[in-house]
Write a structure and sequence with these properties.
With 169 residues, this protein is an all-alpha fold. The protein is built from four helices and no strands. It has one domain. α1 packs antiparallel against α4 and α2 runs parallel beside α4.
């Protein structure tokens, strides 16, 4: 199961990376088309869709690599059971919020498909298509938070390295 979950997180990260490459392609196409005096409709909209998709698809992988921003002011001063209880509470709350976000994202995709919602630009993209990446990213993030909660409950979660929050790259 661990291998399957890690493959899911890595797959989402690869999807995010591909979206970034697509974003670069859209920006370059926009620049080249402007220089050569022709217009490709929708490049700005698709660049925006790809940027949002990259952000959402990268969420779970970022969490699992310990790169999400955490406010550690309180937790760094706790030890033992108090620290563990706060970690469990935070992971449970984050899991619940991520599940709600995933549910509402999936509902948004469903409603956009149901109502044939399209973009207001001249490309008239069915909005449920770019919204799929948001729904997938939030669902994978919810799985990742639940994964972290289960690992913490079983005492197998790897704690962050001391001083890690002080990095300023």
């Amino acid at each position: 199961m661990r291998r399957l979950l890690d493959m899911l997180y890595d797959g989402a990260a690869v999807g995010a990376a591909l979206c970034m490459v697509g974003l670069l392609g859209m920006v370059l196409l926009s620049i080249v088309s402007r220089q050569l005096a022709f217009h490709v409709p929708g490049t700005d909209a698709y660049a925006g869709y790809l940027m949002a998709a990259a952000g959402f698809l990268a969420l779970a992988h970022t969490l699992k690599k310990g790169e999400h921003i955490r406010v550690t002011l309180l937790i760094n001063h706790l030890q033992g059971q108090a620290r563990r209880a706060l970690e469990i509470w935070a992971l449970a709350a984050a899991s619940a919020l991520a599940l709600l976000f995933a549910g509402y994202s999936a509902r948004l995709v469903w409603q956009s498909r149901l109502f044939n919602d399209i973009s207001t630009g001249n490309d008239a993209t069915p909005l449920w298509l770019p919204q799929l990446a948001m729904a997938a990213g939030t669902a994978i993030l919810a799985i990742a938070f639940i994964d972290e909660l289960v690992l913490e409950l079983h005492g197998r979660r790897t704690p962050g390295r001391a001083g890690e929050e002080l990095r300023s790259e």
